[in-house]
Amino acid sequence: MGLKEWIDKTAKGVDDEPEAQQESEKRGVAKPPILFNQTQMLIKQLESKLGGTLITYYNSNAGSVCGNDASAMYEILKGKKIENAFLFIKSDGGSGIASLRIISTLRNYCKNITALIPANCASAATMMALGANEIVMGPLAYLTPVDTSLKHELSPTNKGNELVSVSMDELNRVIKLWHENEKQNDENPYKSLYEYIHPLVFGAVDRASSLSLKICREILRYHIDDESKIRQISERLNGDYPAHEYPILYREAEEIGLHVRKMDDELNEMLQELTMLYSEMGQRAFTDYDENSYHDNNIANIIEANGKQIYYQIDKDWFYRPDERRWSVMNDESSWRKNELVGGKLKNTIYHLW
């Protein structure tokens, strides 16, 4: 019997469907499954293998690293003193500032942290991994550069009338190309660039790039004393790569100076199974009303430890306004929610963050 089949069989008999999800079903809205009992069984198995406390951090395609994650992490950790914590991370990134706050929260309760990376750990999630004493990478694992791009209120817009992200690397490359090909009477390139990108966007992007370096240095200081090594790692991750999505695999992570180790096969398979359970919870859950409106009920972020699971549930309607060429939100009841087992049944409550 495989691990998944054993978990599913053991989990039977426990009500895994909270009242909020039952209500969604009554309204005819597509809903993702809540697999709390299955993930809890697997977390216990993993803790037995690891010999420490497992904390999981997962983003679906609808989620990202965000500021409220630190408060959710606090709810998971409060009252605990953990000698050896293992932090499972699967995310495509988000806010670097949020990563710093999450690591600060973890470090307040955990003496030693080992990051477990079975798959994608990109951008701001890479920053989070930098806060671990050791990074354990599976065969599918990768980190990425952490150079910053941003959407400013004055950013250019695309054909869908949406703001476009602008990065310091892109701006620098435009200027570099101009210098390499400039002729004697060419005008300053900024005059032409300012027709497409507002000067304040240039300043904001430069400021964001400096912030990214600062965040990396502060996170690494939690476990590295050598300032030259901290500077070297931070600068390489912020400026040495031609693409933000470039996958930094095990060998290159080691060359950068990170403390990395290869994941054993058994642990990798268990974490892949956990990823599949979270992916099932984080599957797309849209209900189309008509061609211009739909309901979004995706689960975005999941943070979990033994006995408790906190996740962010999107719950809102989207309407397209053709005259403005944009989507707008109505009936937004999105919220953080908490799962706990009470008397053998799943208790699901709205978790109010401050």
UniProtKB/TrEMBL annotation:
<feature type="compositionally biased region" description="Basic and acidic residues">
    <location>
        <begin position="1"/>
        <end position="15"/>
    </location>
</feature>
<dbReference type="InterPro" id="IPR002825">
    <property type="entry name" value="Pept_S49_ser-pept_pro"/>
</dbReference>
<protein>
    <recommendedName>
        <fullName>Serine dehydrogenase proteinase</fullName>
    </recommendedName>
</protein>
<dbReference type="InterPro" id="IPR029045">
    <property type="entry name" value="ClpP/crotonase-like_dom_sf"/>
</dbReference>
<feature type="region of interest" description="Disordered">
    <location>
        <begin position="1"/>
        <end position="29"/>
    </location>
</feature>
